[in-house]
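Lab notebook page, bench 4
Experiment: in silico fold of construct C2
Operator: M.H.
Input chain length: 262 residues
Purpose: comparison with the prior construct
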Amino acid sequence: MRHSQIFPWLMMIIIIIPTTQVYALNALQVGASADQSSQGNTGVSVAIRTNIYHAQESEMDYFWVGTSLTNGAFIQFGYSLQLGNYCLKGKMTSGESTCLAYWDTIGLYDARWQWQYWPNTYGFDYYWGIGTYNSAGSNATWHTYSIVANGTAWSFQLNGKEVDHILFRPTHSSNPVSLIAEKSIPSQQYREKLGPVEFRNLAYLKEDGWHPARTLTAFVSCVPHCNIPNPFGVAVDGPSGHLIAGSGIKQPVNGALLWANN
């Protein structure tokens, strides 16, 4: 996964964190990318096990599936743990933020689904949606997060049912699909806890239907080029490619093969 895929999510955090203090944020990420066969898809999907815990104020823990698109956009969907007052659906265009829904306070132990769409992965414009209270389900339950091309829109689906959509004409992905566990933090603060959270059943959609990932390759990053070491890891938990990512897990070499479906 290129840094350009991660940078938009970092920029959104800088803009919408509800505080009067200016933070420079770092995004610490671990996860896995699928094989090259997943490139050119028109849909991505992964099951994530909801892990609800006390998220730290001014930090954001996020677990998602996403991909870059051939039209230069980036799209992702998953769930987050974050504290503060947020608009649940909106857009940032030409430096102006517009709320398209209503504002809500996200408190302790409140895991919510969340999506982002960036028309230009190198730009500042973006669109977002956040679910209602506990919309990621109860603790320790599995839920499937899917992004599916649907005519003139991208459909965000939780357990096969659409929870939201965005009216941008879908294009094929420009790179393999990835799953990521991410912690975004102020540059002068640092707490090690991220999850751990579990992923399984990474898949992608092509014209002949859904396909499971054939391989999973480790992804480890800290963006932008920050001086904070990334302590988080990702590892295979079982023969089926079930992954666990976050705190307390040995960090693999970036790009190392984690699992292959033989």
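Observations: The first strand starts at residue 25 and ends at 34. Confidence is low (pLDDT under 50) at residues 1-23.
Next step: discuss at group meeting.
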